Amino acid sequence: xxxxxVIGDIGCDGATYRAMEFDGDGVYALNIEERMTLCNMVIEAxxxxxxxxxxxxxxxxxxxxDHSHKPYMVVKSDSAARYSFEKVYDVTKLxxxxxxxxxxxxxxxxxxxxxxxxxxxxxxxxxxxKLTDFRAAAKILKGKTVRIDTxxxxxxxxxxxxxxxxxxxxxxxxxxxxxxxxxxxxASCAACLGGPSDTFGRLNEPLSCISTTNRNFPGRMGHKExxxxxxxxxxVAASAVTGVITDPREYLP
Length: 253
Known about the structure:
Layout: H1 2-10, E1 19-22, H2 25-28, H3 32-40, E2 49-52, H4 56-64, E3 97-99, E4 107-109, H5 110-113, E5 120-124, H6 125-128, H7 131-141, E6 149-153, H8 157-165, E7 167-168, E8 171-172, H9 173-180, E9 183-184, E10 208-211, E11 227-230, H10 233-242
Parallel strand pairs: 1-2, 5-6, 5-10, 6-9, 10-11
Antiparallel strand pairs: 3-4, 7-8
């Protein structure tokens, strides 16, 4: 929601060849994987890279990774650093956001387009296929059944294993998705970048799809006339349950 709001504000060329740095209480309230989503998407605004200054959450994450035992240096922006421009957002007032076809900066609030009919839902990719994303989606889908074809694609084999191990109220995340009627694929990019016609989740017809992926240009997920709406895992999961674009807050405690 946050990064789609930012891209919708500054446009797909708003950060061309610049670094985008995120700061503030709202940013540091996010876990590492949620911060990854922010940084992952800066290229959709033309950004060269996205950075968040490391804090204790960052260092704890790095130090607990199996392959991170080599010495490293913590790098932060200079206190007197000057920026091309700054934007301030009040995340307490942020509503669920979608990017309408056919560009990540074609921003709309869910409240503006709720009820838009969908044919498919897709939860996956490097942007929206992390374990945090699946935890969020599972909270919505637990005990429910999807009304449209719903595809789940973990970003990595580690995430795939996590779906089989992590539980929500005694049920593995994988079982939550299967019980809801979702189809689970192997760890891959899958339909995020289109691929051959037999690619898992690919849009081979001019369907309307809501997806946690990062791009919705014509043909990106397959058919050139398909319509792809980008959204958070919560919004995608809620919309999968109803078959139309839905505000996930209706399904959250």
